[in-house]
Amino acid sequence: MKTHKEMVNNVLVRLREREVDSVNENSYSKLISLFINDAKEFVESAWNWSVLRQTLTVVTQDGVFNYVLTDSGNNVSIIDVVNLTGNSFLKYKDPHWFNNVFLNSEPAKGNPDYYVFNGVSVGGDTQVDLYPIPSGVFTIYFNVIMRSQELVNNADTIRVPTLPVQALAYAMALEERGEDGGMSAVSAKALASVYLSDAIALDANKHPEELIWEAC
């Protein structure tokens, strides 16, 4: 994995600019840092990368149906949800379904079978509701794609493949300052797209089942 500062300097070198000792050293290095972050967010959203897959654990309490997925942020995707105690998979139900069972009937208590997203916590983490309302202590595993926070410090690292991030940030920098006798922004974006496609193809080999489409 490359650090934030390494990525900024890699782009600066390709722009024939002086390397820096800190990403905040001058206004141009700050701009390149912004491009790196924009490119990272784009690449992280392009595929369910293996390196971003994590398991978040929720331990329920009797009578409590709302839980915070601690440290998840607000940019998380669910792969699946496992009720380890009940030895079953939880299924997603939409908010309307949850409103109906909570407001138009007496909510059941027992082994949780369903989940729904319910906003974010004060700390900015994703919240979920469970149903039936847990009747005791259940261990629930949320297998998720957890995208990283913004790169701020020099030593912050990029977890997804760095080549497409770097190439896309370079293309953004070329586009921002105009042609200067080197690679055009259009060519740089095309190259970044190739790097991204190749990286996704390599990572997809770890999860070939996710590329199989079946008719419902």
What does this structure look like?
The structure is a single chain. The chain has 216 residues and is an alpha+beta fold. Helix content is 35%, strand content 22%. The protein is built from 5 helices and 9 strands. The chain has helices at residues 4-14, 27-45, 95-103, 162-177, 185-204; strands spanning 53-59, 66-68, 76-83, 88-92, 109-110, 114-120, 126-131, 133-134, 139-146. It has a 7-stranded mixed sheet, with no helix packed on it. It starts with a helix and ends in a 12-residue tail after the last helix. The mean pLDDT is 92.
Overall geometric form? elongated
- Portion of residues within helices: 25-40%
Distance between the termini: 40 Å
Total tally of structural domains: 2
Largest sheet: 7 strands, mixed
Q: Uncertain spans, ≥5 residues at pLDDT below 50?
A: none
User: SSE order, as H and E?
Assistant: HHEEEEHEEEEEHH
Strand arrangement in the largest pleated sheet: 1-9-3-4-6-7-2
Structural class: alpha+beta
Radius of gyration: 22 Å
SSE diagram, text form:
Elements: H1 4-14, H2 27-45, E1 53-59, E2 66-68, E3 76-83, E4 88-92, H3 95-103, E5 109-110, E6 114-120, E7 126-131, E8 133-134, E9 139-146, H4 162-177, H5 185-204
Parallel strand pairs: 4-6, 5-8
Antiparallel strand pairs: 1-9, 2-7, 3-4, 3-9, 6-7
Helix pairs in contact: 1-2, 1-4, 2-4, 4-5
Which short descriptors sum up this protein?
single chain, 216 residues, alpha+beta, 2 domains, 7-stranded mixed β-sheet, two-stranded parallel ribbon, 35% helix, elongated
